[in-house]
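User: Run a structure prediction on this.
Assistant: Running it now.
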Amino acid sequence: MKDEEPFEWPVRVYYEDTDAGGVVYYANYLKFMERARTEWLRALGFEQDRLREEAGILFAVSRLAVDYLRPARFNERLLVSVNMTKLGRASISLAQEVSRESGEMLCTGLVRIACLDAASLRPRPMPAAMLKGIEVAD
């Protein structure tokens, strides 16, 4: 993969994202990462609803490893990054980070998303045009 800047998506921490201790509930970091992956695909020209309707595919997380480093709190502004590490015929591996706007790292994740047939939910290769579009963007 090329040494390029990762895709970044801004997120603000809302009250609903926090737990009783006033910090972001651990599962909400996964939601932040999901939103950033969706926006990354959108920035590449791939809308997930259209992929399902027109190509008959969808994506699902097939592997996830997360390290929680520091807590985020209510009303903080965060950046969530997406950096593709491997492109396969039927999966994409990504490194993701959640940080404060100051650059302080809060959470890191390694995510693999699998391309599935929308009807059978079985693994399926991505359309050739999509593979090419992702390779060119990288």
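The beta strands are 7-12, 57-68, 77-87, 91-100, 105-117.
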